[in-house]
Amino acid sequence: MDRFTLSSRLSRIGDEISKLTSTINAMKIADTAAYGKIYEELSRDAAFRAERIACSLRNVIYDANLVPKPLLMETAAQAHGISICHQEDRVEITLPGLMPKRNKRMNTTFITDPLYESLAVYTREQKLPHFTECVVCFSHVFHESLPRRRVRDYDNLECKQILDTVAAFLMTDDSGLYCDAYHTTEFGDRDCTILTVMEKSSFPAWLSSHQEREKSISDF
Prior knowledge:
By secondary structure, this protein is α+β, with helices and mostly antiparallel strands.
């Protein structure tokens, strides 16, 4: 990448950072009690803009051949707190809290690229189960000290892109012919999403253990 192109791309990223700073400053002075909807829109705009900045910076690094993509994505996965564990009949993946759907596909790579690399590394080191018919459970965990209005409709969250990435490693197909989906909302000490892929025969026991949680509210 020549110096002029690099400088131009970094300048555009700098402009985005300035706009993000302005949005955050607006959030600081917004009356959350009286104008909760405005604050929500500002916070969503800030989150989306921050993701675009991160993806743009990654692309600059890729194109300039500064750091190999797998190495950068491993670092990004650590920053996101992405973790994977498995048993014989299930795989559990912990992710950041999912954002509402948006139109620009680049934004979804903020999570899916690090997730893909995490799964690639894990499958090289561990023999994961492969599911033909399975149940996919999305546990959406929200920080218990924050307002309950933060809880969103399940069909408004970016689950499909996550499932597409996971299916490439763990599943024969994620269509309704092979895969049942379940969503639950829980409250805990942090925001995160826990994705569990399991054999259908394992689902009743998993569901029973989750329904025993006092702070769990579910919609099947």
